[in-house]
Amino acid sequence: WSLFSWLISLEGLVVQRAECRPAVSENYMKLKRLQIEELSKPVRLSQQLEKAVTTNYKPVANHSYNVRSPLNNNNTGLILSVCVCPSVQLEYDRKKKEEGKRARVDKQQVLDMLFSAFEKHQYYNIKDLVDITKQPVSYLKEILRDIGIYNVKGTHKNTWELKPEYRHYQGGEEEEKETDD
């Protein structure tokens, strides 16, 4: 059954059988020769290049479905919508380019930023702390392991809080504790 079989139909009884052969002429032979030549050509050809290829194709790190759009900002990591409008993509690319790579700052400066952040709120997730400190995640986690506790379960799951000895610190005392470790 083909898609168009309902368009053309033929009914009846076969009375005589006929075989059709093309007239063997020069035009027909030329047509057949061209058909055979086309079919005998390989689909893919390899060719030797005169000079090295200099175009560098870089992999795309953030496809449109990875971009956190306002639709996808649900903090669960689940993507609610695959299509992201171009303006959101352009804004994301512009912001990413402005920030560039995060460079490590002196540990004491990061500690000061973290302590001032934890004065405002008791619990932070790693993403918010990265936004506050503008530090690489691995470096930030390394520092947080020294001064903080990572909550694995409970109401504040997947958040960081300060260790009890760092909680209600007075400016000068805290720096002394850090240098002693």
TrEMBL record:
| Pfam families with a match to the protein in the record | TFIIF_beta
Mind telling me which GO cellular component terms the entry cites?
Answer: transcription factor TFIIF complex
Q: Which stretches make up the TFIIF beta subunit HTH domain?
A: 103-167
One GO MF term attached to the UniProt entry: DNA binding
Protein name stated in the entry: General transcription factor IIF subunit 2
Question: By its UniProt entry, which Gene3D superfamilies does this protein fall under?
Answer: Winged helix-like DNA-binding domain superfamily/Winged helix DNA-binding domain
Q: Which family does it belong to?
A: Belongs to the TFIIF beta subunit family.
Database matches in SUPFAM superfamilies? Winged helix' DNA-binding domain
Query: Where does it reside?
Result: Nucleus
Q: What is its main location?
A: nucleus
Supply one GO BP term.
Answer: transcription initiation at RNA polymerase II promoter
The protein's UniProt keywords, in alphabetical order, are: DNA-binding, Nucleus, Signal, Transcription, Transcription regulation
* Leader sequence segment: 1-20
